[in-house]
Amino acid sequence: MLYDISLKITYGYEVPVSGGRHLVRVLPASIPGRQRLIAGSVTCQPTPDERAESVDFFANPTTSILFRSVHDQLVIRMQARVQAEASALTADFSPPLAGLPPQLSACWSIDAESPHHFVGPSPLLSDVPEIAAYARAIAKEGMTVQQIGVAVCDRIHRDFVYDGEATTVNTTPGEAFKLKRGVCQDFTHVMIVALRSLGIPAGYVSGFLRTLPPPGKERLEGADAMHAWVRFWSGTTGGWMELDPTNNIPAGSDHIVVGHGRDYGDVAPVIGVLKSYGSHTTEQAVDVIPVG
Q: E-assigned strands of the chain?
C-alpha cells in the first residue's frame, strides 16, 4: 500500500521563548519487510540556527534542532511517501508462556531489536500491581504467548473507553487503568505493563494510521493525530508482533511506523528544552492518504 503522509505540529507560546533545543521524531522509518520510506522531509518555521540528522539507538530517524533567536511560535511539518507492506498475524509459532523464559535466555543479542530491552520497567513504565493482577486473570493456563497478546489487547479494548479529554501526555499507566479511559498512548502503556508483568517483552510503537478507511470499513480511532500501538516478542520463531489495543486489530498495512521504543519517552514526536515562562498550546494535524 502506498501512502502520502503529512503532519503539522504547531506550538504557540504565551510569552516569546529562546534557547530552544529539540529532538524531533516524526519521519517514518524504512524497515525491511515492513515498510519503505520513498521520500520524506521535515521542515521547521522559524528556520533553526543549527540542525542535524541522526538515527537513535532504536534506529529511529531523529532531527536535532536548535534556536538561539526569540520566537513566539514553532511549526514543524513532515511530508512523506511510504510503501507499507505489513501483513496480519500469521500462524501461531509462539511457545506457551512457561516456554518463553528459556528462549529469552538463549537470546544473546543486545542490539536494538533484542527483547531484553523490553522486559523490565522503563523510564515511564514501572510495575503496577493492579495491572499485573488484571493480566494474570486474562492469561489462562496453556495459552501461547501470541494468544495472550491477542487476549490482553481484546480485553483492554473492551474495558477502556477512548476519551481524548480524560488524560494528558503525563498520565501514568496506573492512573489510566483506574480511569479505564484515555487515548492510544494510555491503551498502549497499559498493555505494555500488562505483558511485561507476565514476562513477555513488550514495547511502544509510534506512527500513523490511515486517515480514510477503505469502502465499507469503520474509521479507526486515533487517525487525526500520531498514533501508538504495541509490539511484543513471541519467541525465537514468532519474533516481534504488533497489536493495536485502541482499535483491537493487528497492526497491518494501515499502520505506518515512525519509531520503536520502550515507552512513549523513547519516541515522543518532539522533546527538548527552552527558556520561557507562561503557558503554551499545541495543535497537531495528520493526513494519511492512499495513493492511487
A: 2-24, 35-45, 50-55, 61-67, 71-84, 161-162, 181-182, 202-209, 227-233, 240-244, 249-250, 255-261, 270-275, 280-290
Strands 240-244 and 227-233: antiparallel
End-to-end CA distance of the chain: 10
Query: Is the pLDDT at 149 greater than 60, yes or no?
Result: yes
**pLDDT of 88 above 90:** no
C-alpha closest to that of 159 among 140, 121, 186:
186
Q: What angle do CA 67, 23, 177 make, to 5 degrees?
A: 130
Neighbours of 202 (CB within 10 A): 28
| pTM of the predicted protein model | 0.94
Rg of the chain over Cα atoms, rounded to whole angstroms, equals 19
Coil vs helix vs strand at 135:
helix
Handedness of CA 146, 150, 155, 160 (dihedral sign): positive
